[in-house]
Design brief:
The chain has about 260 residues and is mainly alpha-helical. It is built from eight helices and four strands, in the order H-H-H-H-H-H-H-H-E-E-E-E. The protein folds into three domains: about 70 residues; about 110 residues, no CATH class; about 45 residues, no CATH class. It is flat and about 60 Å long.
């Protein structure tokens, strides 16, 4: 059943001609197989690899394979994207390398002439604003080197903890983080994609805190009733009180013990 579903889903995926989607799905499949092998589910890994091979064979022998090859042979958007990325980084480094410009900026003219621009007959002739066509370029242009480095450092730190954890939420968060790392070079993901990523990272962090990974377990405050006799000395370390020969009345004192176990 799984190979049939995957083969059916491959049709719209291929016809989308979206190379970023293709790369993300291929990496996602490899990541799923890696996690299955990491969990010791070897028979599932074998089944998954078999399903992938069947789908790949069906794509190659069908017209979809020719469509994929034709798309790879005509990367019509590469030059445009690379030119915009170079102009974005160059403008940022010249104008405000540390803090950026706070937002995108429109380009005067186009890549060929300062008088060129979009027209009603050719709206695509206009150059996209600087800081678009990739979330990384938006970070650099709007937040500068400082903001970009802090953002990437945050993602790397959270990804490290998610990789160490076996919690299902951490596994999902790491997958989304990998997808985000792929797409941030070519697509504008500000909005729902970033919200989804941060929500997953937050849930993974909560699971990490509950499991005590890398943070230590915080013991809840516990009220321990201690019976203290008159003339009895209570050690500071919370051990049992040493009774004396004088006094018979007792009273109960709540003692709160708080500790952190690494």
């Amino acid at each position: 059943m799984a190979p049939l579903v995957l083969a059916t889903a491959a049709v719209p995926v291929v016809y989308s001609l979206n190379r970023g989607l293709w790369i993300a799905l291929a990496v996602g499949v490899a990541y799923a197989i890696f996690q299955l092998a990491r969990a010791g589910r070897t028979w599932v890994v074998g089944a998954a690899v078999s399903a992938v091979l069947v789908v790949a064979l069906l794509v190659v022998v069908s017209p979809l394979g020719e469509l994929i090859n034709e798309r790879l042979q005509h990367p019509h958007s590469n030059n445009r994207r690379s030119a915009l990325a170079v102009a974005t980084v160059d403008s940022m480094m010249r104008g405000s390398p540390l803090l950026g410009f706070g937002n995108t900026r429109d380009v005067q003219g186009n890549f060929f002439s300062i008088a060129g621009s979009g027209t009603p007959d050719c709206p695509a002739c206009a150059v996209p604003p600087l800081g678009t066509q990739g979330h990384l370029w938006l970070l650099l242009f709007s937040q500068g080197l400082i903001g970009t480095l802090l953002f990437l450092a945050f993602l790397l730190i959270r990804g490290r903890y998610a990789y160490r954890s076996r919690d299902p939420m951490a596994v999902i968060a790491l997958a989304l983080l990998i997808f985000f790392g792929i797409e941030m070079f070519v697509y504008d993901v500000l909005g729902p994609p970033v919200f989804t990523l941060m929500l997953a990272l937050g849930l993974a962090w909560r699971a990490e805190r509950r499991a005590g990974i890398g943070q230590g377990k915080i013991l809840e405050n516990t009220a321990i009733p201690l019976q203290v006799h008159r003339g009895t000395t209570v050690p500071a370390n919370g051990d049992a009180a040493m009774p004396s020969n004088t006094g018979t009345s007792t009273r109960t004192k709540p003692r709160r013990l708080t500790g952190v176990r690494g």
